[in-house]
Amino acid sequence: MNSLNILYMGPNSGTCRQRAQALRRLGHKVCTLAPRSFLPDNSWINFWIWRTGARFMEAVLARRVLAALPDCDFDLVWIDGGDLIAPSLVRELKNRFGRVINYNIDDPYGSRDSRRWRLYLESLPFYDLLIVMREQNVLEARSLGAKNVLRVFMSADEIAHAPRQLDAADWQKWASEVLFLGTWMPDRGPFLSRLVELGVPLAIYGDRWQKAREWSRLRSHWRGAGLHSTDDYAKAIQCAKICLGLLSKGNRDLHTTRSSEIPFLGSLFCAERTSEHMSLYSDGVEAVFWDSPEECAKHCFQLLADNELRATIARNGQARCIRNGTLNQPTLLSILQAALAEDQSAV
Asked: Residue 156 has what DSSP assignment?
């Protein structure tokens, strides 16, 4: 594939930034633009976007985005997320640059995020290619007018999630027995609380856990807020003997980015048993799956008592993750190939 000049529109943070950097590693020129930066950065604006889908803001935002575009041609416009991108802006970008695609790691078709995705849903018919993470999203997007839909798995990043060289200070700071790294959600509190009740030596990093009804039981296991530094995130996972993979029921997840990040970093992935997890890893060989907190606790105690088994499963899981290709570069390459295919109806 020849080098492309790509306008990449999305947050300059997190997995979005990792994907932009992966496109550069694939040899493309990437110009990034963060639509959210054109609105005031305060909690009221965030609340309004969440509850109304940025109602009454879309015209002003579109004008500011268009005024900020560099004076050059792009081969492709990549929208990451798209909660602030109105149909009129998608059409104008198509008029100027040709092909516009959308990659969304969330579940805009579900009910968890209030009206946040209003503009995204209204814009579906105007994208040349829509990339979704969930099988049911394919039919849902098409029913709302999307012409071409590609489903991919969420992916780890070859650089952000590459294993680090660890020293004694790292192990002293980050070592844990059983780690959960993630934000509080209503369904997660009861599960982790039950693990603590069963005696699992749990460590938690993540935001908003003080809101959990089970906070009194979980407080002593909470080590701090979410780890937004890629080095801290990677080291915490590497220094954990077992890493838990919990899903977002509100997002209808059957896998998450951690389904690849944890194995790729070389730690043992212990997660909810789902059809997608079972398709990614062999249970008991490349990862360990459970259907209940009691089964999860049983696995944790067995694995903590067997260093050799734990290391073998972690090693097998890392190798399987690489074979799966659930990494940014091969995933993004497949997206670009689909976006540039002459016969889009075949996607």
From this structure: B
Cα dihedral across residues 209, 211, 212, 213: positive or negative: positive
- Look at residue 134 and tell me whether its pLDDT is greater than 70: yes
SS (H, E, C) 317-334: HHHHHHHHCCEHHHHHHH
In this structure, the number of other CB atoms found within 10 A of the CB of residue 280 comes to 23
According to DSSP, residue 193 is labeled H
Confidence of residue 312 (pLDDT cuts 50, 70, 90): very high
Q: Is the pLDDT of residue 344 over 80?
A: no
Which domains, from first to last, does the chain contain?
Answer: 5-155+327-346 (3.40.50.2000), 168-324 (3.40.50.2000)
d(CA 35, CA 33) in angstroms, rounded, equals 6
Is the predicted pLDDT of residue 346 greater than 80, yes or no?
Answer: no
Separation between Cα atoms, residue 154 and residue 324, nearest integer Å:
11
Max CA distance (Å), the chain: 62
pLDDT, one tens digit per residue, over 173-182 is 999 999 999 9
CA distance linking residue 225 with residue 172, whole number of Å:
18
The Cβ-side half-sphere exposure at 193, using a 13 Å CA radius, reads 15
pLDDT in tens, 80-106: 999 999 999 999 999 999 999 999 999
> What pLDDT is stored for residue 1 in this prediction?
86
- Which stretches does DSSP call E strand in the chain? 5-9, 29-33, 76-80, 100-103, 129-132, 149-151, 176-181, 202-205, 222-224, 240-245, 269-272, 288-290
Residue 161: name the closest of 247, 257, 255 by CA: 257
Q: Where do we find the tokens 């979410």?
A: 226
Mean pLDDT of 20-29: 98
The answer, as to whether pTM is greater than 0.90, is: yes
**AA identity, residue 147:** K
Q: What backbone torsions phi and psi does residue 209 show, to the nearest 5 degrees?
A: -70, -20
H helix count then E strand count, the chain: 15, 12
Q: Which pair of tokens denotes residue 197?
A: 């009740």
Nearest in space to 209 (alpha carbons), one of 181, 235, 234, 233: 181
Percent of the chain with pLDDT over 70: 98
